[in-house]
Amino acid sequence: MNAGLKRLWVVPAKVAIDAVLILISLIAAYLFRFGGDFPATHVQLVATYWAGVLIVKLIIFGSFGNYATVWRYASINDLLRLLRAVVVASLVLVAFFWVLDLTVPRGVVVLDGLLTFALCGFARLAPRLAQERLNPTVLAALPGPLRAIFATESHADRHILVVGAGDAGENLVREMCRKGHLGYLPVGFVDDDLSKKGMRIHGIKVRGTRKDIPRLVAQHEVDEILIAIPSATADQIRPLVDVCRQTGVKLKILPDLASLVDGPPRLSDLRDLRIEDLLGRPRIELQTEAVSAYIAGKRVLVTGAGGSIGSELCRQILRFHPSEILFFGRGENSIFAIAQELAPRRGDTRLQECIGDVINKKKLVGVFERFHPQIVFHAGADKHVPLMELNPDEAVLNNILGTRNVIETCTSFGVERLVCISTDKAVNPTSIMGCCKRVAELYVRSPRFDGTVITAVRFGNVLGSRGSVIPIFQRQIERGGPVTVTHKEIRRYFMTIPEAVALVIQAGAMAAGREIYVLDMGEPVLIDDLARRVIRLSGLVPDEDIDVVYCGLRPGEKLDEELVGVGESREPTAHQKIFKVRINRTVADKDLDAGVKELIRQAVEMDDMGIRDTLKKLVPEYRPYLPPEVRSWVDKRPQ
After folding, report:
1. Which residues, in sequence order, are CB contacts of 530 under 8 Å at separation 6+?
2. Helical ranges in 64-166 per DSSP H
3. Which pairing describes strands 578-583 and 568-572: parallel, antiparallel, or unpaired?
4. CA 56 to CA 250: how far, in whole Å?
5. Whose CA is closest to 558, among 511, 622, 610, 515?
């Protein structure tokens, strides 16, 4: 039916349905009132005046806008509108009967009103129920006028099998049924809880367990499988994914519950399966009261807010209802992007974009003078190890000078709490980046900065962050390979971005000042195994479809990363995933300032070798790596 014809049929069909139900209500009211015995005098009364009753009610219903609404989206507001119309119509009819001196029992008037509301209300809810429960084939068989009322804009064209018949699966199926125009047709649930087998949720049957997935996909011509178990761990997800892969159909998944920052799971939360889903660990349980106590109602500034860690910090901080979030960073596009992403769910939190660089202290001071942040998360830094080996001046300016600028500005303006992001590469560093982060930790531990609770949190690689190994592998696979691994035995600690950020926020609640925290990174992952998993996740076979080649360690890289170094020990805290690092060696403030002053001079002059020599004095455990470009230049220097 075309749109014009559909509009022509809809309102008359609604009026006709109401007219029939109004007459049924009037007759039923009499039958109820007189116990099924319809008095002859009242039969004549109804026969004489039924048209008047009908016209009065339909006119009043129309004047209240009851025929200007879309019944398949009926809500409580529509029922309240109908109730008001019924009450007014009943009062008008009482006045009508009184003027004409007609004897109509009060019980009939009351019952008629109740029945009219009940039947007409159900008529308005019926299209929504049909939309959520009727198969599109049944809807297509309805007569034109009824189909115009009951049917959605289009019919489902994707058969969906939902894995997980819990709250998340129920939410997704309810949304599919309610939003038929999206084209989803749920054909069944799968759940390993045998007590649910055969049960129905929103009319959709639980058809079996995970072992039945291949059979159900073939039997119901499934187009997509949705894994709706956001509480599942990676160990639980992996075997489930292996079964789903056998079917060859598209697979989507709901992210971890911690990532669902805006209410219950929705269809918009679904995404393609990622390697993080297969490597992640049990969900982090935040001590929400402690976190909320230091964030709620506060003005929070995040440096590097457009980066992988900074943007996730902003997402999770928003959950604790700060009064304001200040996005500070030098990448205008990324700052704009995170602000736009969070704007629809900001609630009462103000969002402010600040373009600037932590190297520019005057800019920092200006931002602090204007907005007076109370809590600061410093996530702005250079993190690429090989790049910083070739550009040590940038590492010094951004990671050391930038951190010092943030610390000094925070203490000058009386910021309550500052949390700095550090790295496992700061432990027994072999790279410029790691060593500069180590020097930044020295500032965090300096006793001269008082009045602000300052702490730093170390963690390793984060899965899926910009420049991390997984996106590199994925791009190599898209090009047809090969996938390059630096060394067959190289291992790294990995966390998901939400997990790392959640623990950073938690550490901020625990800090008393000048601590270095380290996160529980679990067991290190063999990068060779990781590369092969990414290839398989892409539906390919390692060493057959895609080659894996070993290219050698890059500048500044180690085979194995460490979380605590020489002269350090790890102590437990109130949170089982966060440890405090006890560091025995200290650097006097005057030596630190003198060393950093020299580093800044050398960075401005691009004195790469001088930077390495000065860093070695500040961090004796630093074992510098000289890239071939630098070594060649050193060898040619006059002696």
Report:
1. 275, 279, 469, 470, 473, 494
2. 76-99, 106-133, 136-141, 144-150
3. antiparallel
4. 56
5. 622
Angle between helices 608-618 and 589-604 (to 10 degrees): 170
The helix (run of H) or strand (run of E) holding residue 571 is: strand 568-572
Q: How far apart are the first and last CA of the chain?
A: 90
Rounded Cα distance, 170 and 185, in Å: 14
Give the pair of three-digit tokens for residue 493: 């600690």
Q: Which of 161, 219, 210 is nearest to 187 (CA)?
A: 161
The phi, psi pair for 252, rounded to 5°, reads -125, 160
Parallel, antiparallel or unpaired: strands 200-201 and 204-208 = antiparallel
Tens of pLDDT along 368-408?
999 999 999 999 998 888 899 889 999 999 999 999 999 99
Is 409's pLDDT higher than 70? yes
Gap between the Cα atoms of 469 and 472, Å rounded: 5
In whole angstroms, what is the distance from residue 627 CA to residue 635 CA? 12
Kind and range of the H or E element at 319? none
pLDDT digits (tens, 9 = 90+) for 333-348: 999 999 999 999 899 9
| Contact criterion met (CB below 8 Å) for 497 and 565 | no
Fill in the amino acid letter for 292. S
Which tokens in the block code for residue 527?
A: 């990068």
Structural domains in the chain? 3-147 (no CATH), 152-273 (3.40.50.720), 288-618 (3.40.50.720)
Contact 424, 562 (CB under 8 A): yes
What is the distance between the alpha carbons of residues 419 and 506, in angstroms, rounded to a whole number?
Answer: 10
Question: What are the tokens at 220?
Answer: 């119901």
Query: Under DSSP, is residue 325 helix (H, G, I), strand (E, B) or coil?
Result: strand
| 143 confidence band (pLDDT: 50, 70, 90) | low
Cα→Cα distances 491→461, 487, 523, 542, Å: 11, 9, 10, 19
Query: Measuring CA to CA, how many Å separate 273 from each of 108, 542, 594, 618?
Result: 62, 19, 50, 45
Cα of 158 vs its chain's centroid, Å: 24
* C-beta atoms surrounding 377 within 10 Å: 29
